[in-house]
Amino acid sequence: MSSYRIQGATGEWEVVIGLEVHAQVTSNAKLFSGSATAFGAEPNSQVSLVDAAMPGMLPVPNMECIRQAVRTGMAIEAAINKWSRFDRKNYFYADLPQGYQISQLYHPLVGEGSLTIEADEKAGIPEPKVIGIERIHVEQDAGKLMHDQHPTMSYVDLNRSGVALMEIVSRPDMRSPAEAGAYLSKLRQIVRYVGSCDGNMDQGSMRADVNVSVRRPGDEFGTRTETKNVNSVRFVMAVVESEAKRQVALIEDGGKVVQETRLYDPDKNETRSMRSKEDAHDYRYFPDPDLLPLVLDDAFLEECRASLPELPDAKRARYVDGLGLSDYNATVLTTDVDTARWFEALLAATASAQNKPEADVAKQAANWLLSEFFGALNKLGKDLSTSPISPEGAAELLALVGNGTISGSIAKQVLEKMLETGDAAGVIVEREGLKQNSDTGAIEAVIAEILTKNADKVEQYRGGKEALFGFFVGQTMKAMQGKANPQIINELLKKALAG
After folding, report:
1. Which domain holds residue 134?
2. How does pLDDT run across 222-244, given as a tens digit for each residue?
3. What's the pTM value of the predicted model, to 2 decimals?
4. Which of 382, 399, 432 is the last residue of a domain?
């Protein structure tokens, strides 16, 4: 149970949070037309006659959008309704050409489901928590008003008009900003794994309406407000905290919270009133007469389920139980789908290059990726998507370490050269003369010389000062310019010092 409380002048208050997340469906076209949905296109360049609500135009459902919503529902183990219906939500706004939005209120495509947020002691989430999801319904987006293009007029861009959205409605089960942030992060993670939404919140393809109310701990729910179109996890958490504090101050001052729609100002870190919150009857919902109900058969549902990938929780468990990775490494590797895919490709290529089972090279690959490679990319201001090194190229480097051709320290130098030049690891090793020296005779000769020069330290070592062993290793590596095989050095040094 969350211990998060708002400390008011008259005592403690509990915050109650629900999120309505709008996720733009990844598809080949809009929900009811064939128009493109690419981000950043010229205004009004992706608008069909249907999107512009020209007379006589009839909507036809894009079944790929339906398929993606069903797959999302299956990923959160929700009920899939074989029979669903589209409704008209009637309201006037300049960016809504039809004068209504086609949505689903009474009979949504996806029913009840849930997702589990992980424990995070630092964030105040002491144990895993199940957050209920009420439904996922499919609806079309509105267009966009642009107020900064002309001194006296507002322009309308209808590129987003008709774009398919999944509205994912949670239960009011969250009790802290951290829980709301964790829920949104987990939901984003799942839709990105499924491929039903790209999750790019900065581009508006995923945004949240944040419902907040306050109450005395254990009391009935209070009156909620809805803060619209919040476009980052950090801002969602900030909205919860600032809006809850505003409501507590208002109630304790003798006022009443009004059910309304609000907007968040990140510069001032505060919400402000936008309009009174409408109820369903205000929108005059009724079944869309131009659209038949959606009826899904078993074959369609089976295909949707069969197309689901391994989801993050299952992948993390496999990394720990099957590959022997630590909980931490498995979590980091599976948090982002692009990282997980890159690691999977690296793991397969590394196992192939070294002719070993994946379980035998998983720790080497994971540790190298999360420490050496990510560190080198960060220094250059790059990430996996802009890396000049492919998983196969990285596997070649790891194989050179695995077979003793180069040492771990030399591998760091090779990695820097790979990032700088784009050349393959083997090419760099040959060109730079970086192959590791495993000639026992040559190493023995260097060790003998070092022990002769440092006879006093040899005596100290043999007298029990075993920490000096590292000194002898370092001196040998230095004498051989870092190219000697460390394992052979250790073996030969122990033998020589024991004599």
Report:
1. 6-300
2. 999 999 999 999 999 999 999 99
3. 0.87
4. 432
